[in-house]
Amino acid sequence: MREGDRQKFVELATKRVSKAIRDIHLIGNLSNRSNYHYTDDDVAKIFKALNGELKECRKRFDLAINNKENSRFSLEA
Question: With a threshold of 0.70, does the pTM exceed it?
Fold first, then answer.
């Protein structure tokens, strides 16, 4: 792995995760019942969607890690 690849990952991950956290905070602001009307079903749908995307994201990282580990070959037991 090149150092530039690591630096680019850190830069992009920092920006994207910070933006995601900020956007999640904004979603949380929707919980103010004096400003918004929503149902328990609405809330369940929001969290189902968010949790689903987080699980898919995690799978992609896990697959990348597992593929790297499984690509090693050795005749030694």
Answer: yes
